[in-house]
Amino acid sequence: MPQSPVPSRRGILLGTAAVSAGAVLTACTSNEPAGKKPANSPANDPAPAADDRPGKAVTIGFAGPQADHGWLNAINDNARARAKKYSDVTLEITEGSNDTAAQIGQIQTLINKKVDVLVILPADGKALTQIGLQAMRAGIPVINLDRVFASPQAYRCWIGGDNYGMGLNAGRYIGEHLKNKTGAKVIELAGVDSLELTRQRTKGFDDALKNYPNITKVARQAADFTVESGQAKTAQLLQAQSDFDAFWNHDDDQGVGALRAIAQAGRDDFLMVGGAGAKSAMDAIKADDSVLKATVLYPPTMSASAIDIARAVAQGKGVGGLAELEIPATITLYSAVVTKDNVDQYLPTGFS
What we know:
By secondary structure, the protein is an alpha/beta fold. The chain folds into 2 domains: 21-161 and 300-334, Rossmann fold (3-Layer(aba) Sandwich); 163-297, Response regulator (Rossmann fold). The protein has 10 helices and 12 strands.
């Protein structure tokens, strides 16, 4: 799963995660017909948010990790779909790898091809910093997607999600639902503890709960962002905790397993909040027939916005709606909370 800078770093907080961050790049009207888009297409197949009038031909190199997770698949799908919207964009996309040496090699190939701009979601931001620096020194602007490089000199613009904000908003949602309950208890199913993103999500959650002194976190387990681990770790938590009021799960993929374990245990005496924004989670929220009542977004539409930004940078364009002539250095997406009251708005962005 993704990893983003600590929220206290410089950033621009955009309004809502349901719309790609590229929505602030609006400079002209779209060439797409009006009307509702199919809900099963990437990011609801939105019209390009940047100036979509044909301009200078641009080749964008896109390199990400292996798409072995629903969110990462959605990242690739959104990038491809966005690039197809522009007649002046050619997308060179790599196969993707979780091996840092292999990903560095793939990016080196794109540099050797002299692409106009690179969009890179590194498997490990720190480990790939040098290849980002190499591209920038070669005159190829880098759009660093989500997992941040160790040096701001390695990218022209960083765009990604807010892991701390995910935890914060999940905690606030739970806190507001339990604020009048004396001795309320919550448990947490985290991701992978070796990842900074997991620590950020937990910190945000814990910080939010500090505002609700009646609530105590009584248990926490770390899983591996997989269905199997979600099911196994949730089963352990349910066995150890016979009485609690809320359950926060960091990731909707592992949440599929968590819901299985909850159903098998016959438990319906608490509310559950998920994370990331999978379509399966949103479907369950809309059906309102399980403990899952909300999910906090970590929008894969960020890759569509990265294509918008890459094209604008390569063509020397700025951002419509801002006084500045240049693309911002950092764009942080907002972690919206999806509930049954607003799920129809966000459902088109859900990923499989």
